[in-house]
Automatic annotation (TrEMBL), chain B:
<feature type="domain" description="ABC transporter">
    <location>
        <begin position="4"/>
        <end position="234"/>
    </location>
</feature>
<dbReference type="GO" id="GO:0015658">
    <property type="term" value="F:branched-chain amino acid transmembrane transporter activity"/>
</dbReference>
<keyword id="KW-0029">Amino-acid transport</keyword>
<dbReference type="InterPro" id="IPR052156">
    <property type="entry name" value="BCAA_Transport_ATP-bd_LivF"/>
</dbReference>
<comment type="similarity">
    <text>Belongs to the ABC transporter superfamily.</text>
</comment>
<keyword id="KW-0067">ATP-binding</keyword>
<protein>
    <submittedName>
        <fullName>ABC transporter ATP-binding protein</fullName>
    </submittedName>
</protein>
<dbReference type="GO" id="GO:0005524">
    <property type="term" value="F:ATP binding"/>
</dbReference>
<dbReference type="InterPro" id="IPR003593">
    <property type="entry name" value="AAA+_ATPase"/>
</dbReference>
<dbReference type="InterPro" id="IPR027417">
    <property type="entry name" value="P-loop_NTPase"/>
</dbReference>
<dbReference type="InterPro" id="IPR003439">
    <property type="entry name" value="ABC_transporter-like_ATP-bd"/>
</dbReference>
<keyword id="KW-0547">Nucleotide-binding</keyword>
<dbReference type="Pfam" id="PF00005">
    <property type="entry name" value="ABC_tran"/>
</dbReference>
<dbReference type="GO" id="GO:0016887">
    <property type="term" value="F:ATP hydrolysis activity"/>
</dbReference>
<dbReference type="InterPro" id="IPR017871">
    <property type="entry name" value="ABC_transporter-like_CS"/>
</dbReference>
<dbReference type="GO" id="GO:0015807">
    <property type="term" value="P:L-amino acid transport"/>
</dbReference>
<keyword id="KW-0813">Transport</keyword>
C-alpha cells in the first residue's frame, strides 16, 4: 500500500510538473492582460507538435527539438496576440475569453489538418524503467521533473533579476501606475506571450512524452491547468507552482479510491471547492 | 521659459465635459496649488497635463512644446512625473524595485539617483527590501514620491499628497514638498488641506464647476475673504 501510494505520488509530481508549466503561463497572462486564456491548452499541443515534426521528420532527439518548439510556440502566441487580442485590449474580459475559445478551436483544427487526427508518439518501443524497492521510474519522468525545476528557477530569476521581468510584475501589480511610470505596456505584453507560449510548448512536449500526442491533448488538459492556476491564486505565477503540484498529486492519488477516468473530475472538484471556499487562491491572487 | 502652460482646456473622461476652458501655468521652480470644492475638476485638470484626460479644446504646453496629443508614457519622457492619489505604489514589490520601476525608461546608471532619494527619504533607505504593500500610508506616500523622482523630473504632479495621512505626516509631507521644490523641481498639486497648501505655495488656483474662479499668490488667497469662507472654514 505504501509502495503504491509512493508510486502514485511519483506520477503526481510528474503530472504536477506539466500542469505547473501550463498554469504559470495562464497566471502570467491573466495578471497582465486580465483574461482567462482558454487557448492555452491548445498552445501546449501546438508546441508538442512542432517538436514532433523535428523528431519524426528530421530525426532530432526530443530534447534537441525543444528549443525550436519553444521559439515556435512563443512566436505563434505573439502572432495570435497581435492579430486578434491586440484589437480587443479595451474590451471587457468576457469578450477576450470568448475569442480565446475561438482561437483554441482554430489551433486544434490547424493541428489536425497539418499533423492528422490520429494518436502519435515521439518514440515507439518500451522505455526500460528503473526499479527501486518496487517503485517504477521511467527516465522520461526524471527529465520532466528536472526540466520543470530548471524552467521554474529560470523564470524566478527572470522575474526577480531582470528589468523586463520586474516590469511584468509591476504591470500585473498596478497597471495604471506602470503606465504613468513609462513602462512600455505593449512590449511587456509581447514578452509575456513569449514566456507563456514557450513554457506552454515545454508543457506540451512533456505531456506528449508522458502519454501521447493527439489534437485534443491540450483541450483535455486545460481544465487541470486552470484548476492549478486558480488554486494557486490566478495572476500569481508562484502560486501556480503549488497549485500545479496539488492538482497533479490529487489527480493521481485519487485513483486509489475512484476510477482513473475521473481524474479530470477531481481537478474540477478541487477548483470548484476552491472558488467557493477561498476564491483568492491558496496565495492571494488578483481575481 | 514657462514650465507648464494649460490654455483654454475643455474636456473630461469621454462623457460630459468636466473642464470648461481652464487656464493654468507653472513657472520653473514654483509650487502651484489647485484648490476647490469636490467635483470642481481639480484632479482632472492635473491629469490633463499628463495625457490622462480626453481633451476637446485647448492645449497643454510643456516648455513651449505642445504635449496635448501625447500619451502618458511619452509625456513622462519629457520631464513630467505624476503621483496618483491612490494606488500609487507597486504593492507586491520591494521599495527598491518600486524605485527601479520609476526609472524604467532610463538607460543610464540609476544608482546615484536612487541613493539621492534614499538620503532624502531615510525611512525608505531603512526599508529597501520591504514589500511596499506592507508599509504604512505615510511611508507609501514617500515611496510614491520617490518613485516619481527617479526620473529627476522638471515638474512633479501630486494628486492630494496628504489625503488620509495623520496630522504629523501631513506637516512632514508639506515640508518634504518644499524641500523637493528647493532642489529646483516645479510642483503642481491638488490639495484638500487648503490652508496649509496655500501657505507653502507660490501661487494658487481656485477652481469651481470646471472653471477658473480666482488665481493669485498663495498669501493673497489666504487673505482673501471669499476663499476663506469657501474653503478655509471661515
Amino acid at each position: 500500500m505504501v509502495t503504491e501510494l509512493l508510486q502514485l505520488a511519483i506520477y503526481g509530481v510528474v503530472l504536477g510538473s506539466i500542469l505547473t508549466l501550463g498554469a504559470i503561463g495562464v497566471s502570467l497572462i491573466y495578471g497582465i492582460l486580465r483574461f482567462a486564456h482558454f487557448a492555452h491548452g491548445d498552445l501546449m499541443a501546438l508546441g508538442a507538435y512542432f517538436s514532433l515534426s523535428l523528431v519524426a521528420g528530421l530525426g532530432f532527439p526530443v530534447w534537441a527539438s525543444a528549443p525550436f518548439a519553444i521559439v515556435g510556440a512563443a512566436l505563434a502566441a505573439i502572432a495570435i496576440d497581435q492579430t486578434v487580442y491586440r484589437h480587443l485590449r479595451k474590451s471587457p474580459p468576457i469578450i477576450l475569453l470568448i475569442s480565446s475559445f475561438g482561437i483554441a478551436i482554430a489551433l486544434r483544427s490547424v493541428i489536425q489538418l497539418v499533423w492528422g487526427p490520429r494518436n502519435q508518439v515521439y518514440a515507439s518501443g518500451i522505455q526500460i524503467p528503473w526499479r527501486f524497492e518496487g517503485l517504477v521510474i521511467k527516465p522520461d519522468h526524471v527529465w520532466i521533473v528536472l526540466g520543470a525545476v530548471v524552467l521554474v528557477a529560470a523564470l524566478h530569476l527572470f522575474l526577480t533579476r531582470t528589468k523586463m521581468g520586474k516590469a511584468m510584475r509591476a504591470m500585473s501589480d498596478n497597471m495604471d501606475l506602470a503606465l504613468v511610470s513609462g513602462i512600455p505596456s505593449e512590449r511587456v505584453i509581447m514578452v509575456t506571450w513569449a514566456v507563456g507560449g514557450g513554457l506552454a510548448a515545454v508543457a506540451g512536449i512533456f505531456l506528449g512524452m508522458d502519454t501521447r500526442l493527439h489534437p485534443v491533448m491540450g483541450w483535455s488538459v486545460l481544465l487541470p491547468v486552470f484548476a492549478a492556476a486558480i488554486l494557486g491564486g490566478i495572476g500569481r505565477p508562484y502560486g501556480a507552482i503549488a497549485g500545479g503540484m496539488v492538482i497533479g498529486l490529487a489527480m493521481e492519488m485519487s485513483t486509489v479510491v475512484i476510477d482513473p477516468t475521473y481524474k479530470p473530475a477531481v481537478a474540477f472538484a478541487l477548483m470548484v471547492i476552491m472558488l467557493v471556499v477561498r476564491p483568492q487562491g491558496l496565495f492571494k491572487g488578483n481575481a | 521659459m514657462t514650465l507648464l502652460s494649460i490654455e483654454g482646456l475643455t474636456g473630461g473622461y469621454g462623457g460630459a465635459d468636466i473642464l470648461h476652458g481652464v487656464d493654468l501655468r507653472v513657472e520653473p521652480g514654483e509650487i502651484v496649488v489647485i484648490i476647490g470644492p469636490n467635483g470642481a475638476g481639480k484632479s482632472t485638470l492635473m491629469k490633463a497635463a499628463f495625457g490622462l484626460v480626453k481633451i476637446k479644446e485647448g492645449a497643454v504646453l510643456f516648455e513651449k512644446r505642445d504635449i496635448t496629443p501625447l500619451r502618458p508614457d511619452q509625456i513622462v519622457r519629457q520631464g513630467i512625473s505624476y503621483v496618483p492619489q491612490e494606488r500609487n505604489v507597486f504593492p507586491s514589490m520591494s521599495v527598491e524595485e518600486n524605485l527601479e520601476m520609476g526609472a524604467f525608461i532610463r538607460t543610464d546608471d540609476i544608482r546615484p539617483q536612487m541613493e539621492r532619494i534614499y538620503s532624502f527619504f531615510p525611512r525608505l533607505a531603512e526599508r529597501r527590501t520591504q514589500i511596499a504593500g506592507s508599509m504604512s500610508g505615510g511611508e507609501r506616500q514617500m515611496l510614491a514620491m520617490g518613485r516619481a523622482l527617479m526620473l529627476d523630473p522638471k515638474l512633479l504632479l501630486l494628486d492630494e499628497p496628504t489625503a488620509g495621512l495623520s496630522p504629523l505626516f501631513i506637516d512632514q509631507t508639506f515640508e518634504r514638498i518644499q524641500k523637493i521644490n528647493a532642489a529646483g523641481i516645479g510642483i503642481l498639486m491638488v490639495e484638500q488641506n487648503a490652508k496649509q497648501a496655500l501657505a507653502v505655495c507660490d501661487r494658487g488656483y481656485v477652481l469651481t464647476m470646471g472653471r477658473n474662479r480666482i488665481d493669485d499668490t498663495g498669501a493673497n488667497l489666504l487673505a482673501n475673504k471669499d476663499v476663506a469662507e469657501m474653503f478655509l472654514g471661515g
